[in-house]
Amino acid sequence: MHFFIEVIIPISLPQTFTYKVSEAEFSFLENGMRVAVPFGKSKFYTGLVADKHHNPPALYEAKEIHQIIDEKPIVTQIQLEHWNWIATYYMCAIGEVYRTALPSALQLESETIISAQREVYTTNDLSDDEYLIVEALSNQTALKINEITAILNKKKVFPVIQSLMEKGIVYLQEEMIEEYKPKLIRYIRLQSEFNSADKLEELLQFLKSAKKQKELILSYFQLNASQRKPISVKELSEYANVGTSVVKSLIDKGIFEEYFIQQDRVSFDEVENSHIELNNHQQKALEEIKESLVSKDVCLLHGVTASGKTEVYFKLIEEYLEKGQQVLYLLPEIALTTQLVSRLTKHFGNKVAVFHSKYSNNERVEVWNQVLNQSDKSQIVIGARSALFLPFHDLGLIIVDEEHEQTFKQVDPAPRYHARDASIVLAHFHKAKVVLGSATPGLETYFNAQNGKYGLVELTERYGNAVLPEIVLVDLKDNYFRKKMTGHFSQTLIDAMTEALSNGEQIILFQNRRGYAPVLECMTCGHIPQCPQCDVSLTYHKFKNQLRCHYCGHSIAKPTNCHACSSIDLTSKGFGTEQIELELASLFPTKNVKRMDQDTTRGKYAFERLIDSFKNREIDILVGTQMLAKGLDFDNVSLVGILNADTMLYFPDFRAFERSYQMMTQVSGRAGRSDKKGNVVIQTYNPLHNTIQQVTHNDYIGMFKEQLYERHIYKYPPYFKLIKLTIKHKDFEKLKEGSMWLYQVFKQNLDIPVLGPEEPPVGKIRNEYIRTILIKIPQEKHLGNTKKTIQKILNSFDAISQYRAIKVSVNVDVN
Fold it and tell me: Helices (DSSP H) in 646-689: which residue ranges?
């Protein structure tokens, strides 16, 4: 009998691959274990066992596996089922889901190693580059490709390696590299022979001339007596105020013995549980959620900003922890995890694990292992959308906070999943419950709640004595006409800011565009510098004195004269957060102004530093992009200013009005979260616009009904499902021809609305032209069958040789 396993490989191929194993390997292997497998001519990948069987593949000869990596599964059966659902629903390869889901440190890939074949006695026939490699190989047995790149200081090293191989001097081999390295802390203890009093006396006598070593020994005994736990080298050195070289001397003399203990890189200290008291409205909401979750799997908590939704979540979490179940708490932005982790650890102590992309590879592996082993340290997992892929065993509750946020949807690369929808399916696999929370729920979510598919609980009162902020509209058109503007600030906003600052209160200003100005224009000929690789103008960043493309990262120094006519009369148009920051510095020179956008939060702890400084009242005015709009809680903010509300309203997207309402309401909700009444100043050219009026009156239902009516007429979600195809190619004519072919075949085979091929607002990115096709699927149409038809057409498209180079990406449930 033959033995085979089905293996998922982390590359973009739609199927699993069959490999041959021995009978012993077959009985040892389980689904979810990693195996190193050969793929292609010489490459090795970390595959994941998805199934075991006895059927040989029909189309190819099954290869044997290279090695088994794990002793027990690192991926659960539920995870495999969930990944299959994501691959099927979002129309992507299972390998792409695996590559995204598993921390990259657990995905070993083979690395090409260059080794010497024979001794080289003559170097006459070698080029300079070849000689350098041979010389390096005479000092060490093997070199990696990146090491050769560094030696030659060249990017293209393969021709040199190829030449050496032809001469029979070197050969290539593939080696699997284990990326994860546990963190080992160096500890020391006194050798057992010195534990008796007389031996110790002898030792101190022996060291009487080595003063620092003697002091270190005495410090060791003081520390040992006071804490009765292992003593690390670092701790002892700091306590005795000596360098680690002194410790090393004592180890070399055989007085101290060193040993290592593995330690988690991320750990939160155990603290006293702070008790949470719910007010009447919160208590009522909690009871209603629990009642709703008896009959329904999903419940929407629609609570106004600062209504205390987080405290309600905490009480729910307590109940699931008492049952011994795990809880997943999803947030849309890494910035939010910072603030919430401190609140969670205050209440739950060291039961909290955090998982997001700012963590290092090793930190993510440790969290993965904690969740897999159901460690006490990971009973509550808080994270961004990627936390959804962790190996939960007994998941009881998933909380999706700020569920309306578009950052829950993965854009690139595949899988282009929506964390909110995928979490509902994950909960179904675990027989768990889901609570969605938002002050401005997504239209589809609220529609499902109104239809009874989800439970709905309303929380209409702000926590404590806080009242909703007063919103003032400023007509920019009128203010510019009457010359009442100072830079980009109306007099109304300046007066409100002056008053808030004189009262010792803090201010948040919102401008959803980073950089100094989006356009630098020549006033003589009208030329605007464009990105050579994308169809956009370059954004001016004054701080770095450069023009930068926000799509591909291309940058040039700020020109001193026009590239087209050499005029020196250049001026910036529009404004971003950088310009606002500089204007504020001249308006309020004694106040501390900081900026929070993608440029200022690149470092691992940049979010934490900014948020802590603002919370500790070290920053008076915080200027930022949409990062500021998401659930941050500052009790001293009394004023929020929205500098231009119109940039969001007139974006070419069917969700533009819904998004604008959500963004403005959320950012307004940062004001007046304690006893002080908050104020919001919204600057706009169109104060009578329906959406802006709905924000002013906090009329979510009005916005919901108006948008629902329009969605019904124009065939958009929640009445229709959307699948968007993005087609890219460097040749404009070939792209045009290929996208037209696709559109016509879709039109012939699908009896549903197909729009396109359309040029998007940015029609070229990274030297590739773009076209989009939008397919609208009505509720009564079978979604699975329609997707199968779409996939068949895409497979046929790939099979046509002239179109093979055209890239097509599929985005299901466009956000």
Answer: 646-649, 656-668
The CA dihedral of 730, 733, 734, 740, to the nearest 10 degrees, is: 120
* Domains recognised in the chain with CATH numbers: 3-106 (3.40.1440.60), 110-176 (1.10.10), 194-252 (no CATH), 280-459 (3.40.50.300), 470-516+575-651+659-698 (3.40.50.300), 720-812 (3.30.70.600)
Q: What is the pLDDT of residue 310?
A: 87
33 phi and psi angles, rounded to 5 deg: -90, 150
Residue of 390, 350, 335, 199 whose CA lies nearest to 270: 350
Across all residues in the chain, what is the average pLDDT?
85
Q: What's the Rg (C-alpha) of the chain? A: 31
Work out whether the CA dihedral 220, 223, 229, 234 comes out positive or negative: negative
The Cβ of residue 151 has, within 10 Å, a number of other Cβ atoms equal to: 15
Which parts of the chain sit beneath pLDDT 70?
Answer: 42, 108-112, 118-124, 155-156, 158, 172-184, 195-200, 228, 261-274, 335-336, 338, 358, 465, 603-604, 629-631, 673-675
pLDDT at position 182 is: 63
Cα gap 297→344, rounded to integer Å: 24
Q: Parallel, antiparallel, or unpaired for β 395-401 and 326-330?
A: parallel
Output the pLDDT for position 173.
67
Amino acid at 280: N
E-assigned strand segments in 102-181: 110-116, 142-144, 170-176
Distance, CA of 221 to CA of 188 (rounded, Å): 12
**ω into 718 cis (within 30 of 0):** yes
pLDDT for res 278: 83
- The whole model's pTM is what? 0.81
How far out from the chain centre does Cα 201 lie? 59
Separation CA 356–CA 139 (nearest Å)? 41
Spatial CA neighbour of 330 closest among 266, 264, 411, 422: 422
| Edge-first strand listing for the sheet containing 110-116 | 142-144, 110-116, 170-176
Phi, psi of 56 (to 5 degrees): -70, 150
Q: Return the DSSP state at 273.
A: P
Question: What single-letter DSSP state applies at residue 675?
Answer: S
- Region for residue 264 given its phi and psi (left: phi exceeds 0; alpha: psi -120 to 50; beta: otherwise): beta
Q: Looking at residue 616, what is its pLDDT?
A: 87
Lateral strand order in the sheet of 506-510: 470-475, 679-684, 637-642, 506-510, 621-624, 593-596
Write the CA distances from 491 to 21, 487, 584, 664, 790, integer angstroms.
Answer: 76, 10, 14, 21, 56
Q: Which pLDDT score, from 0 to 100, does residue 112 have? A: 66
Give the DSSP letter of residue 307. Answer: S
Strands (E), 110-235: 110-116, 142-144, 170-176, 183-190, 231-232
Angle between helices 211-227 and 233-240 (to 10 degrees): 110
- Is-contact 351 326, C-beta < 8 A? no
**Pairing status of strand 34-39 against strand 67-68:** antiparallel
Angle made by CA atoms 599, 605, 609, in degrees to the nearest 5 = 85
How far apart, in whole angstroms, are the C-alpha atoms of residue 204 and residue 241?
Answer: 19
| 3-class state of residue 64 by DSSP | strand
Beta bridge partners of 184: 262
Of 559, 558, 571, 557, whose CA–CA distance to 524 is shortest?
Answer: 571
**Tokens standing for 556?**
């040039």
Q: In 184-308, which ranges are continuous DSSP H helix?
A: 197-206, 211-227, 233-240, 244-252, 280-295
What local confidence, expressed as pLDDT, does residue 573 receive?
87
Q: Give the residue from 617, 724, 636 showing the smallest Cα distance to 678.
A: 636
Amino acid at 617: R
Tell me: cis bond preceding 159? Omega within 30 of 0 counts.
no
Phi, psi angle pair for 355, to nearest 5°: -145, 115
**Phi/psi class of residue 199: alpha, beta or left (left: φ > 0; alpha: ψ in -120 to 50)?**
alpha
3-state secondary structure of 798: helix
